[in-house]
Amino acid sequence: MDGLLTTLGAATAPLSWVTAVALGALAGLVAAIVMDWPMSRQPDGFVPAAIAAAVVTRQSVDDVSMPELLVVHHVAGLLAGIAYGVVARGLAAGLPDLLRIGGLDLLAHLLSVGLVVGFIYGFFGHLVLPRAGGRSYEEQATAIRGQWLRSALVFGVTLAVVVPLVAPSLAG
Question: Are residues 115 and 101 in contact, defined by beta-carbon separation less than 8 angstroms?
Fold first, then answer.
């Protein structure tokens, strides 16, 4: 088994910074799009995305249109994916090469997914939501935070799956 890990680790060079960030951006956008389906099935629907869009566009939650909230939601996914790529590549540079597949250091990948998911939940659930204020915050904060947690977990699972599927095709 040790020989297999060494072989897999030595088979490919680590992804470049540019490739890791581009892959993260793509995977983040895909993950945000994947989140649309379970989010639409939640009791509060797209309310969390509407809250984020309301803060970004400086409107009330009730005034945010569906196209606006989808754009903000998908751009946030893309940006979170970029953050994932930066963190994953940075961690990979400092961690020992234990298992690399297609240029992707799996330990750095999994740690980065966890860090990004935690950041997404903390940022939106505890910084954006209170900033939006209003009826949603006063009456539904716990439910909306729960929905943001579930959505962040869907995002993380999608990143955890998509990145290793795409990375081997990008490794040089």
Answer: no
